[in-house]
Amino acid sequence: MFRSRRAGLVRRLWRQRCGAASPEDGPSALKLAANALFKKLKDEELELLVQVVESRGAWESGCVLAPRGDPRGVKQGLPPQVLLCRLFRWPDLHQSHELKHLCYCAGGQGSCGDLAVLCCNPHHFSRLAVPETPPPPYLKASCGPSWPDEPQHPSTQLLEFSYNDTSLSWSTIKDGCWCKLAYWEYRTRVGRLYAVHEASVNVFCELPWGSGFCLAQLPAAYRSCAVRRARGKIGRGLLLSREPGGVWVYNRSEHPIFVSSPTLSPPAACRLTVLKVLPGYSAKVFDFEWAGDREGWQLPREGPCDPHSIRISFAKGWGPCYSRQFITSCPCWLEVLLNQPR
């Protein structure tokens, strides 16, 4: 590639850099290290990096492979993947253990077949979500369950949801898929169950490139303003993946998602833990080993809990720290019904 062409690509990359968390961590402090890394990339990898950064990870791109080890002149001693993630996604990132390779990254841990290189595509990584310190319980939490006063169109199919019923059981989905997805708007299930046979699936409303469970295609006879507002925040949605040991969720949208499952809660918990997953973050939301100890688990005030299910609310939280006490008070949410482990 002509030198002027490479210089133009580097300038395009530099225009996409993030703001600094502090002056000493600013892009100018990383410029020397970044330029040293860019020089080590092949022409096609530099072009791919430009496309990925400019599209903000809108599509599942290939790996950008860089030599292992620190580039010369890196004062901070940052690995290539940390350097690019810090430059283009998270200015406050410091260590590689804060990152997780996404399931479709082939160059993660040398899985591309060459141990001398590793992937540094910043959109092949997510940050790990950790439970945050909860705020004080919502003042109305002691008032008991409150159902949303949402008008229902006469032709809308309403599934009677009860806390004495686990809704859709995993025992009904023994047809070869590892999970099925049910999309809900408050207490109304919209559309059919979506069977997942691949190791991962995108759930989205607007995804420029890619495939999966498109919620925008699900018709409904009536949608309230609250539902329409919440659906407008789903965007690129999430990536759900089955990986060794459990199920992970990656938030691809621009708004938080809220997740609960039996294995996110301590064994002696009196209610389900709801985990807030920020945009760009991942969390292990179901642990296969822990699930074996949760058969027949029942929560006070909430009835039996299906030990093989995950519930995800888009943009709206629920639980003791929110005005919504139950997920059925959330405008848009997803139920992940896991198949019985074999």
UniProtKB/TrEMBL annotation:
A Pfam match? MH1
The Swiss-Prot or TrEMBL record describes its family as follows: Belongs to the dwarfin/SMAD family.
Organism whose genome encodes this protein: Lamprotornis superbus
Q: Which domain of life is it from?
A: Eukaryota
- According to its record, what are the GO cellular component terms? cytoplasm; heteromeric SMAD protein complex
* GO MF annotation terms: I-SMAD binding; metal ion binding; transcription regulator inhibitor activity
PROSITE patterns assigned? MH1, MH2
Q: Where is the MH2 domain?
A: 178-342
What GO terms in the biological process aspect are recorded for it? anatomical structure morphogenesis; cell differentiation; regulation of transcription by RNA polymerase II; SMAD protein signal transduction
Give the subcellular location.
Answer: Cytoplasm; Nucleus
Keywords on this record? Cytoplasm, Metal-binding, Nucleus, Transcription, Transcription regulation, Zinc
Q: What is this protein called?
A: Mothers against decapentaplegic homolog
